[in-house]
Design goal:
The chain is built from 8 helices and 10 strands. By secondary structure, the protein is α+β, with helices and mostly antiparallel strands.
């Protein structure tokens, strides 16, 4: 039997090649976590496996090498994701709270959050250049920006910022093995950039981000305004967390109840973002000659 076929009945076969391909690709990503092979070696093995798949005339052997090729591609993808450019900001050796200037583009939603008796503005910045001393240097990578005031900043803005760069704290809570630093590093963020109330945050250009991401965030903000227009503040905060993934407006006592009841995980994933990903996948699959099931 072909590896890409699953028997449903004696006379019916359902072709599900994507399932096997996805499993092979994911297995390659998992193997990269446990075996640290050089990227060049993986590329050579991928080329050899693909050649054997194309040159072999026997169907089962060809399919076997094709799946090995997909597995190696997953391995290569994971390895390439971990390979950072030489000018990546994570290579910086910085003393705590050292002053710097950054130029870059906002690549996440901009979140206004309460901070003691005031507000702070939080977003991720894709760094383009950095100035420490007298000269600008080309840089890459992400930093988490905290501006300790309300700021008129949007997704896709090209900014120049002046503040202090420091690494996230590595403290853990409740005996957890994962810290806030680990959480940010999983998102590709190795530094936090803090800007005080009177610090420089200058917008050079607007709408420099991905147009699809920009449209989705505008829709998200519109839904958010609808929640607060027709619902009480506490209920609007909960709906905002369930559907849009923004949890900073949930009252602390209500969030504590979610944790005590063991259902806090249902507000950990944005239903809005899941819906966008599901829609794009279904749209792509409709273009393929595959049964709906």
């Amino acid at each position: 039997m072909n590896l890409f076929e699953t028997t449903v009945s004696p006379s019916t076969h359902t072709h599900r090649p994507l399932v096997v391909i996805c499993i092979s690709f994911c297995l390659g990503i998992i193997l990269n976590l446990y075996f640290n092979l050089p990227l060049l070696l993986l590329l050579v093995l991928t080329a050899v496996s693909l050649s054997l798949s194309l040159l072999n005339s026997r169907n089962k052997i060809s399919t076997f090498f094709l799946l090995i090729t997909v597995l190696l591609l997953g391995w290569v993808h994971s390895k390439h994701y971990q390979t950072l450019p030489f000018n990546h900001i994570s290579y910086l050796y910085y003393e705590a709270r050292q002053n710097a200037m950054l130029e870059g583009i906002v690549v996440s939603d901009v979140e206004p959050r309460k901070y003691f008796n005031g507000m702070k503005t939080v977003f991720a910045l894709q760094v383009k250049r950095m100035k420490s001393g007298e000269e600008w240097q080309a840089k890459s990578g992400l930093v988490l920006v905290n501006i300790f005031r309300a700021a008129n900043i949007q997704y896709g803005d090209h900014l120049i910022l002046e503040g202090k760069l420091h690494r996230p704290f590595a403290m853990t809570k409740n005996g957890s093995s994962s810290s806030y630093r680990d959480y940010l590093e999983r998102q590709g963020i190795t530094f936090i950039f803090s800007i005080k109330k009177d610090g420089r945050a200058e917008t050079l250009k607007r709408k420099q981000g991905n147009p699809i991401m920009d449209l989705s965030l505008r829709l998200k903000h519109r839904l958010n305004r609808i929640f607060y227009k027709y619902l009480q503040k506490e209920k609007a905060g909960i709906m905002q967390a369930f559907i849009l993934g923004d949890r900073y407006d949930i009252p602390k006592d209500i969030f504590q109840l979610f944790r005590l009841s063991g259902v806090a995980h249902i507000i950990a994933i944005s239903g809005f973002n899941v819906g966008i990903v599901a829609f794009m996948i279904l749209l792509f699959l409709k273009m393929l000659p595959m049964p709906r099931r």
